[in-house]
Specification:
Number of strands: 14
Order of helices and strands: EHHEHEEEHEEHEHEHEEHEHEHEH
Strand order of the largest sheet: 8-7-6-9-11-10
Helix content: 25-40%
Shape: globular
Strand content: 25-35%
Number of helices: 11
Largest sheet: 6 strands, mixed
Radius of gyration: 18 Å
Structural class: alpha/beta
Mean pLDDT: 94
Distance between the termini: 9 Å
Length: 274
């Protein structure tokens, strides 16, 4: 029998519009995992942020975080795979952002600890909202200048703002094979996020690694947004929730019920191979 790896996005897909998982979905998925289903999630979130919104969900295999930059075992925090920028690539990102006067959230390891850094005097409404949702997060590292902002081993940049100010940055990095860059509107919000990662920091690359690690024959994925396109392209089957963007629906094997109506869990209950 084929071993199938089931991979879902979180925000807008498994999470409902209130940023949590419906109890019915948790009950269905936990039962299937207990019975042997190979299930994980792939998200742009960190493990810290994802752990908050997935409370109650049983996870027995590694999860994909930061859009594929990391594969992490959720119960131990052990990093199984990590994609980083070269020093040259980090310098290029910083130079481009400086040229457009954009001050990002910088994800890095500073003295061996994972941190999210930002300049406190350059906060905009989008960054303030991001911080308000992560109160008590030990990764948060407010700084006062660019020298402090760009310290450590940087692996992910998030720029939040108007599409018009972020589009030139996206245009530069999306056309450079050394980088992976996405731009999309924040769910249920007016601001846009432009995220810059190493080229191999994709959900697709991470899924390939997990597929080999767990000796799976097939991948079935679920998503809602443009950053799920690479994941859909390498999946044997891929399903877009009803609330997904049209670009993703066009690539999908099928359309399932929405994130608010337990679309992923209902599909798994009916079709998952255990």
């Amino acid at each position: 029998m084929n071993r199938v790896l089931y991979v879902t996005d979180l925000d807008g897909t498994l999470l409902n519009t209130h940023d949590w998982i419906n109890q019915e979905s948790i009950a269905i998925i936990n039962d299937l995992v207990k019975r042997g289903m190979l299930f994980t999630y792939a998200t742009a979130r960190s493990l810290v942020s994802a752990s908050v919104v997935t409370q109650g969900l049983s996870m027995d295999i590694p999860i994909i975080a930061y859009n594929g930059a990391f594969i992490i075992h959720p119960s131990t925090g052990e990093i199984l795979s990590k994609e980083s920028f070269t020093r040259e690539d980090m310098v290029q990102v910083i130079d481009v952002l400086d040229s457009f006067n954009i001050y990002p959230l910088v994800y890095s390891y500073v003295e061996g600890e994972e941190k999210v850094s930002w300049i406190v005097t350059k906060e905009n409404e989008g960054i303030r909202r991001y911080l308000s949702l992560r109160k008590g997060d030990k990764r948060l590292r407010p700084v006062s200048n660019k020298e402090e902002l760009y310290q450590g081993d940087m692996f992910y940049f998030t720029c939040i703002g108007e599409r018009e100010e972020l589009q030139p940055v996206y245009d530069i990095f999306s056309n450079n094979a050394r980088f992976r860059c996405t731009i999309q509107q924040e769910l249920y919000r007016p601001e846009y996020w432009c995220e810059i990662m190493p080229a191999k920091a994709t959900k697709a690359e991470a899924i390939h690694k997990l597929k080999r690690l767990w000796n799976c024959d097939k991948v079935v994925s679920f998503g809602d947004a443009v950053n799920d396109i690479p994941m859909f392209e390498i999946s044997d089957e891929c399903y877009a929730v009803e609330n997904a963007v049209e670009e993703l629906k066009a690539l999908a094997t099928g359309i399932i019920d929405s994130n608010d109506n337990d679309g992923v869990a209902k599909w798994l209950k009916r079709y998952a191979i255990i």
